[in-house]
Amino acid sequence: EIWKANSDGSNPLQLTFLSGYSGTPRWSGNGREIVFCAALQGNADLFIISADGGPPQQITTDSSNEGAPNYSRDGRWIYFASDRGGSWNVWKMPVEAGPATQVTRNGGFFASESPDGQYLYYAKAPDAPGLWRVPLSGGSEEKVLEFPPSGFWGYWAVSADGIYYVDEAAPRARIRFRNF
Fold it and tell me: CA gyration radius for the chain?
């Protein structure tokens, strides 16, 4: 289930009461909503719920699996991973509903826009190493980091100056920074 609490852990509030898996929650830019995925009837779909609770709104209904959602910087789009077509790629759809558009063609999973809105960064797949980017205006993808290793698709964040990521290869996990 999806819960929220104050930053010190006080005042926990359960937001979802669903039977099955619920996960990968992401806050909207305005802090009023949370997008997440849930597998309620076999495949995983995306849902939005108010940050104050209430009934979640299902926003995908495809027979494929959708997961790892994330809002665009301007809050108008939701990026997500889908296995539509047989392989995982990044898709996007308007927050206000509408058809989804495929963004990546050679694999993609968790995605995040750069702060300047020029690039979309993404991990290729849940089990594939590497962090990639593609210009939002269109163009070819390029690999920017060997990280993340297999299984660590969500352990990174893009900032204005570079990419923060967790390095699990060190004797003790470390947060690293790749300066642009």
Answer: 16
CB 121 within 8 A of CB 111: yes
Separation CA 69–CA 77 (nearest Å): 10
Span 75-108, pLDDT tens digits: 999 999 999 988 999 999 999 878 999 999 899 9
CA dist., res. 48 & res. 51, Å (int): 9
- pTM comes to 0.91
Q: Sheet with 33-41: list strands edge to edge.
A: 21-27, 33-41, 43-50, 57-58
17-31 pLDDT per residue, tens? 998 889 999 999 999
Q: What is the DSSP string of 28-53?
A: -TTSSEEEEEEEEESEEEEEEEETT-
